[in-house]
Structures are given as C-alpha cells and as structure tokens.
Amino acid sequence: MPRIACFDGLPGPTHCHAGLSPGNVAASAHAGQVGNPKAAALESLAKMRLIRGLGVPQGVLPPQPRPDLGTLRRLGFSGSDREVIAGAARTDDGRPLQLTSSASAMWTANAATIAPSCDTPDGRVHLTVANLASNFHRSLEAPTTHAVLGTLFADARHFVVHAPLPSSESWADEGAANHIRLSTSRGAAHLFCWGKSARGDVPTPARHPARQTLEASRALARLHGLGGDVALFPQQDPVGIDAGAFHTDVLAFGHDRFLMLHERAFVDAEKVIDELRARLGGELVVALARQAEVPLDAAIATYLFNSELCVLEGGRMVLVAPRHAEGCEPTRRFLDRLVAEPTPVDRVEWVDLSASMKNGGGPACLRLAVPLTDAERSAVRGRVFLDDTLERELGKWVEKHYRDRLSLDDLADPALYTECLGALDELTSLLELGSVFDFQRSSGLPG
Ligand code: SUG
Questions:
Q1: Where in the chain are the domains?
Q2: CA-nearest residue, atom 13 of ligand 1
Q3: What are the pocket residues of ligand 1 if the criterion is a CB atom closer than 6 Å to any ligand atom?
Q4: Which CATH superfamily is domain 3-66+102-441 in?
Q5: CA of 207 to the centre of ligand 1 (A)
Q6: 200 with 214: CB under 8 angstroms?
C-alpha cells in the first residue's frame, strides 16, 4: 500500500509581503511589511526535519526563478535584464514587478492534484499540475512546476504527469489544497472541492473570490480515471470563503480514515459527512468543529485546519500544528479534545512558521502529499529526499544565499535577480535535477 511522502516547497530568496491574493486575509493584512526570506526558508527546513523525524519520507521542491523576466518581457518591458527590472519597477500599470517576484511556489499543496496508483485504472500515480488561473502571480508557477514534477516523476512505468488544465477562469484549478482522499477497508473516497461554477444555481461568496471551479474538479476526476463510485464534489461554504478560507485546506483536511473540518468548510457539511459514512462505513473518524467551539475567524487566523497530518508506522497519527493555534484558547482546546477522544491522533507537535504564514499559508500548504509505494518512491528521480547530509547542505545553502530582510522596494534591485538565479543554479546541482529551469537551458546565467 502507498504511504504519504511529503514534498515541501522551499520559500524562495524573493519571499516578501506584497498582498497579492484578494480573499487571503493574512496576506492582505501583512501587505507592505518587510519580509525575511532567510527566516522563512529556515523555518520550513525545521518543519521538514520534524516531519522526517516522525518517519515520514520528506522531499523538497526548489523555489522558482524570480522575478520572472520572461513574463515581464512578454508584458513589453525590454532591454537588458537590468532595464527590464527597472522598467517594471517604474510603471504605474499594475504591479508587474511584485507579481512576477512572488515566492508563492513554496505552497506546494497548490502544485498539483494526485491520485495514488491503488485508485487509478492503469495502476500508476497520476499528477495533474495546477494552473492556478485565479491569481496572476500564482498562474506563473504552472509551467515551471510542470517541468519540476515532470523531472521527478519521469518514470512512465509508475507515473503520469498531466499538463495543467487550460488556463482560464472556467477551469481554474488550485491543486491538492482542494482535494482530500479518505480510505477505509470499504474503499476510497476522493473529495474534489470547489468554490464556484458556471452553473447559475449555486450560492456564491459576497466579499471574497472563490478560486476553484466545479468544472475543473470534474476534469481532474476524469483525468485521473476516478468515477462516481469514488469521487464526490462538495462545494466550499461561501460563508467560509468570505471569512478567508480561499482554499478548502484552510478549513478541512483528511487522510486515511480521519477527517477534521470546521462546519463552515462545506455547504451542508453534515450531508457531506453522511455521504462519506455511507461509502466508507464506521471506521471513518470525523472531528467536526462547530462555530460555537471554534469561531471561524479563530480557525482562519490560526490555520488550525492547515495542520499537517502525519501517519506513523502502524497507522497512528501525529498532527503538526501551527504555533498560532497553541496561543489561541478555542483552537488549543479543540486540539486537546481531539487527542483526549478516541481519534487516530495521538499527539500534537507545534511548528513556528511565522515568516511564511504572514502570506496566508500554513504547515500543510507548504507540502504536496504524494502517496507512494516503496517501488514508486525509489523511482522518483533526483536527490530530493532529505537525509542528514542533504538537510545540512540545504541549511548552508540558505545561509549563504538568502537575505534576512526584503522590502517591496528591494525587488527593484537587479542584484536580487542574479542572487536568486545563482542560488537556484547551485540548488539544482544539490538536488540533482539537471537543467530544469528555462534560464539554465537558454543563455545561461546573466552577467
Ligand atoms: O495563494 N499567498 C498564497 C497562499 C497559499 C496557501 N495555500 C494553501 N492554502 N494551500 C495564495 O493566496 C500571497 C503572496 C503575497 O501577498 O505576497 C500568496 O500568494
């Protein structure tokens, strides 16, 4: 049977706070603050070390080259690299430099949606790269994510990497952040969650945008060969989206026989739970937080439901929860109850991810969970699984290349671009990924 391997995205050297995502409450609240890319990357490495220490196979995915000069050139900024950056920094026409500089590829829960080989008709792991069409800065990730995942999962005996769905609002897809797979001895259920649809008869949020479409979710189920016997399509509750739950994984997560959710995660959460119980039987354990127990704003501010669920050898679970949820009375009490009650969760480990959480992504946002058998894990290319040596090398690499403060004005510094590319060039050697980035295949490093 497959078990989860985690692939975390390292926050990149351009991590800053630009407030680029409408409806992402934390990102909007911290817009304009000075960022600390080094702290974000070191905190992320510390989380990876913790997860690996729990016996979970822990991989790492590289940041993407930023600013994305190819996109700036397509927007009409021309000349040398320096001139392109200066032109983009000067314009009043949108915020092209901030948008193309985002390190948002760190949230690899949005990189792709996965179906494990035990569920697919051809017995291979299927991955569909997310188009992230709802936000311009995130849509820029898709081609490079495709190249990276295509490199790691190149072995066609085991893996199929599907191209992103066509990039348009109608097929907007945010990856695994809107997908939950549960399983018991009765079988598996895949929840393909969505927030909006071309159908006119569904409730819509009033304040904040929904991102994932029902149509995209259905396309993913088709691509992965998952029919009506296993696929469910619950709608995110617009009340939850309006409070800041732009992705499903801000209010719900699940794996194996355990589902934890806030009652505002889905339109009619009770009905979704009943449907799951009918399919999966009594082994399914559901921890439901009612509004009276955990108010929506506390759930969203702490990223409680973005805790990372780790399955230990033998099936017991540890919840890796954001430190923010420890300091908040209702969320801490909810977790105490979870551990005290007969759920599969034995204990909670706290992680501090303050530097990246300011941009509205918690522990589980930072990782792509890929269920892999031993044979499939051995077929993953590159040197991406952490061991003591790689962990040490990555720590040194961050110390060498990252700044510990980055303001929005600093994005105009052309040295930041060369620093970023130099760092990534070195990283792809460490990770044995080959020339996976465009800049490594074309003219080489800029002078
Ligand atoms: O898409 N934030 C990301 C956070 C993604 C969190 N992922 C999951 N929930 N799985 C987003 O909103 C903010 C960047 C900025 O404002 O500078 C940003 O892109």
A1: 3-66+102-441
A2: 359
A3: 17-21, 24, 27, 102, 104, 107, 109-110, 138, 177, 247, 249-250, 359-361, 365
A4: Succinylarginine dihydrolase (3.75.10.20)
A5: 18
A6: no
